[in-house]
Amino acid sequence: MKQLHGALIATRVFFFIAGFGYASWAPLVPILKLRLAIGEDTLGLLLLCIGLGSLCTMPIAGTLARRFGCRRVMQLDGAAFAFILLALYAIPDVSWAIPILFLFGMATGLIDVTMNIHAIRIEKLSHKHLLSGIHGMWSLGGFAGAGIFGVWIWLGLTPLFSTGAATVIMLVLLLAFGPHLLSEPQTTGKRNSPIFAIPRGVVILIGLICCISFICEGAMMDWSGVLMLQEKGFPVSHAGTAYAIFSAAMLTMRFVGDALVIHCGSRPIIFGGVSLAIGGLLLVIFTTPAWLIYTGFFLIGIGLANIVPVFYSFMGQQKEMPIHLAVSAVSTVGYLGSLLGPAAIGFIAHQTSLYISFMTLAALLVLLLLIARHVYAKAA
Description:
The protein has 14 helices and no strands. α6 packs across α12 and α10 runs antiparallel to α14. It folds into 2 domains: about 1-180, Up-down Bundle (Growth Hormone, Chain: A); about 200-380, Up-down Bundle (Growth Hormone, Chain: A), CATH 1.20.1250.20. By secondary structure, it is mainly alpha-helical.
């Protein structure tokens, strides 16, 4: 039991590291653009390398975790993740940017899948609902990474120092908590099992649910500020307020999500939460007072917060695919949503309007409810 408690703490720390590292990369994007003297179109193509790298490792991450154990994969990949972050600051030209960003994406995809496999195993062994709080640590790491970087820059420290300090923090946490992860492989069985994770059965439905959730989360990140400025007429100083409210609501809800699942069950959390998110989108679209719009973003954050943790937990209970392959498959399908979703929102907005794009998100959430109903019916 003591070993399991230590492994739980270590898992939470790894989720924090992942969020912290990714948030520490975000401030480097404009710095990289200025150093390389590139336009938005070239920058967009470079950032696509991160997504392509992630899509290369996510389908095989489960097999790597099974064969070598999550602890080894998470420790090695976590260290690579930290050092690549430092390398991102020092990219000298575009020819170097492509492989380094691709490697960064590979490391991101690999650690995302393996730490979720490890978290699901911890939850199964403890017989408790833990994934919402564990996923909340990723959000907390994101807040910490973005906040600390901003403080360092405000204090007059160079971006190089700030990035180096973030790398050191990640490595120290890795060395301190990595040994406490569970050491045995996540699954047992024949070594000639499939290398690539292809979803089947109920895992396909869970993948679609996570994909829709990630599309909505990505839209909040990339398009909420545009909506506030372009359609609602808010000043530039308020551009990030909507996303900040959404993120704070999601973070808070994830830390109380496990207790809510225990007391209410997962079905009310999913159906009630998605209904709140749909209501929040309608407030954002059809109202004009600032407090109602911000209330809408708050409801969206509350509603979306526990969808992915609840259905990742569900993967630990399904029998149609081994956990390591199921998590790889769902993560890949879900990540496609976060990668392609914001671009699709932009395309729809260009052809119609941003309001129509946000209405499309509401329609997707209705579809999510229908898929979730089918998943619960199959589990009954």
